[in-house]
Each structure stands twice: as structure tokens, then as C-alpha cells.
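Notebook B, p. 112. Complex prediction, attempt 2.
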Amino acid sequence: MSSTSTTEADGPAPLAQALFFALVVRPLVLVVLGLNVRGRERLPRRGPAVLVANHNSHLDTLILMSLYPLRALRRLRPAAAADYFLRTRWLAWFARRVMGIVPVARGAARGADPLAGAEAALARGEILILYPEGTRGEPERLARFKGGVARLAERHPQVPFHPVYIHGAGKALPKGEALLVPFFCDVLVGEPLRWNGSRRAFREALEARMRALAAEGGFPPWE
Amino acid sequence: MSLPAHLTAPVLWTMAAVLAALALATALAARRRARDPEGARELWLRVRSWWVMVAVFAVAVLLGPRASIVFLAFVSYLALKEYLSLIPTRRADRRVLFWAYLAIPVQYWWVADAWYGMFVIFIPVYMFLLLPARMVLAGETRGFLRAAGTLHWGLMSTVFALSHAAYLLALPPEGNPAGGRAGLLLYLVLLTELNDVAQYVWGRLLGRRPVVPRVSPRKTLEGLAGGVATTVALAVLLAPWLTPLAPLEALGAGLLIGLGGFAGDVTLSAVKRDIGVKDSGTLIPGHGGVLDRVDSLTYSAPLFFHYVFYLHY
């Protein structure tokens, strides 16, 4: 992998993306699974903005991107781990051109900026999808947020961060499973948050808002 | 002009009458909405959703028995998915649930194949035995009985019971010269849904004494009696057009559908109350989820099917 920075040139291919979402993703997310969305009107219509979501499944990104109309897709940019999604040529093509990811270098060397791609996307006025837990982790459990989301907020104090809680995707397709078992998924969209002056306070405020959304759903633990 | 084999003139006339009734209801709702937009919001959503449901059902019926069976299998899928998403399931059973879903195409295959003997035991016997055995392979014993029990209850209600509505289409059409293949299905679904509406309306108009206060405080004796009476009247009126039932038999069918529909409705209410939710989902605006709409049918379909099957086939 030569570079993890993103330019317009390796952004989404609109036709491939629209076809894939219309023919595969939407039938999968809306018919095979099915969504119950609360607070849809709180979703940002245009960028720069950040959707901050919990992450338990590969389905999460497909679900979040299905909340938007097809023509808005290319403005949606999921931040995704470069070491995972760019590991083969074909996967890299799919991740960049169809899913429109901006790669994040996990465990980057000192001095390198792992969030450069994400920042460029915000500078272009796009809507970034961010999973601050860093990885999919244990199904249906919320892990502590990593520091990147607060650093991003500090550098972009005017950008709104919209918390989105997803429930059910981790049951339908948890990490390490290849067999999809259908479940309705709940999506709860919260009020946006902006930079509040302290990295720690911002991270904690965001975590608290996410926990509040989870509590609002009242989902039983999955054991 | 001759009609395709699965349709008869009375079936088409009944569908036209449903559309006319729905148009009338829409006009009334629109008038209320003009006066009080906020207060009539729920009613308006509900009427709009009725249009969609009636349209989808009508298209499935018009396309023929195959299409109707596929449509009802899809309804079973949505209902089972809603149920499994609602109840607490165990992580260990994820793959077991996949097997439970597979029961849907198999069960509706027996319907399309008109293999009555298999249709009527596949879920109560074979799935009942298979799923717990598959759960044993997963190896988790904590909560085993509860998981096996809830899963089987869901399959019985959403797949086995509902598939009886589809089996009406597999009955030989010679048995029903007036209604043909589609007549009995239309009769059952129309009466079950109208029974829901009639019980609601009579309850709103006269309701005072709750029937099952701890489960569903807004279901009243007056609503139940008014609804069942309305359903019985319609059952007798429509029977010569859509079914082979004699007037007295139709009266019995109306009673079964009216009382069965009520039982299905409050049984799902008890389940929802147990879980702690108001609606089973949000798929049908103004109605709730799919289960909220088909709960009455899970009782009325098998009751009506076996009644007609015993009397006429």
C-alpha cells in the first residue's frame, strides 16, 4: 500500500456504487433485514458532518448508507481501517470505488496522520462515517471510544458529530461469522454534538449520548 | 370475456367492493383531517397503509395461486423475523434461528404441492423435534427450555398457523364453484381484517366493560360483541358468493373468525406486554409491525381452514 491519503481520483465510482446499492445493499438491508429508524429527521442532509456509530458488524456501514438516497451516496465516506480493507487489490478497489471509504491507518508511525483522509473528506464538505470503538469487537456491546474522534472534533470545531446507535446488526452478522441470520435492526439517531473545548470531555459526552440512545432502545443483552 | 381459472366474477366484485369501501373511508378520513390535522394523523396513516396492504394483497390474488402462496410465505417471513427480533434469543442459537427460517420455504412448498399430510405435521412434529436437537449441538444448556419453547411458539404462530390461509388455495376448486380457488382466501382475510376494524369501532362507540383488563385494557365486551355480530352478518352475506358454505355453516364460520381473531389479537398483546413493547415493529405506519396486523389471522386461519375442510372437502 503506497499511500492512505484520498483524492477525488480514488473516491467512489458513482455508477458502480449506485448499481451495487440499488441491486444488492438495499434489498439486503431493507427486505432481508428491515430497519426501524428513530430520529431519521436528525440526520445531517449535507456535510461537512460526522456520523458517529457503534460498530459490531460489516452490516453497520451498509445500514447507515441505506438511510440516504442513492444520489447522496458519493458524499458519504466511511472511515475504514487501511490494514483490513486495502489488503488485496480487489478488496481495495471495492472499498474505495464502491463503498467510498477513506482509509485510516491504524497504529500509524509517529508523525504520520492516520486521520488525514478523514480530514480531507470533511474539507470537501462530505459526510464522514466514523466508528470510534476502532473495531467491531464483541457483538451487541459498546466498547470505550478511542481518541481519534476527539482529535478530529478539535481540529474541526464547527463540524457537527451525530451519534447513531445501531442494534441488531451484530446479531445478524457478528464479527467472524459468514452466515447471515435475518433480524430487524434498530437505528437510533441522536442530537448532534460539537467540540466542547476538551478532548476528554468531548469523548465522554459522545459516549454518554451513545449510551443514552442504547438505553432509549431498551434492548435486552444478547447472551 | 372469460376469467383465468383461479378467479370468479364474485371474487372480482368483492375486491371492487373493498376498494369502494376503502375509498369511502379515505374520504371520511380526509374530511376529519381537514378539520383537525394533528388529531387525524394516526387515522390518516392507517388508511394510507390499508391502501398499500389491499393493493399488494389484491395483486397477489390476481396473479394466481402461486403468487399468493409466495406472498403469504413472505408475510410469514416478515412476521417470524419480527418475532425473533423482539424476543430475547441466545447467542448460541444464532444458527438454529437460520434453520427456523428455512422452515418457511419448506412449509409453503408442501402447500404449493398440496401435500396435506406433510403440511399439517411438518412444523408441529418435525421442526419441533429438529430444532432442539440442533440446539444440543450448540451445547448451551442455560435457558435451553425457554429458548426451545419460544422458538417453537413463534414458528407455530407465524409460519404454521399462517400457512393455513395459503392452503385454502390448494383445495380443489371443484369444491367451491362460486368462489374458485381465491374465494376462500379472500373470505377469510377480508372477514378477519374487517372483524379487527369492527371490534375497534364498536369498542370506541360503546365500549365500557374490559374483557381482559390486565392484557389489553382497551378491548371491551361491547367491542367484542359488536365486532363478532358484524363479522357473522358479513360472513352469512358473503358466503354464497365466495364459499361453498350454507347459511348456517357461514354463521359458524363468522363466529369462529370473530372470536378466533379476538383471541389472536389479545394473545399477541400478552406477548408484547411480557416483552415490554407497545407495537411489534414500525413496518406499517399507523398499524405497527407485521405481527400487529396478522395476529388475528394466526388464529382465524387454522380455525377457518379446518372448519371448511371438514365440512366440504
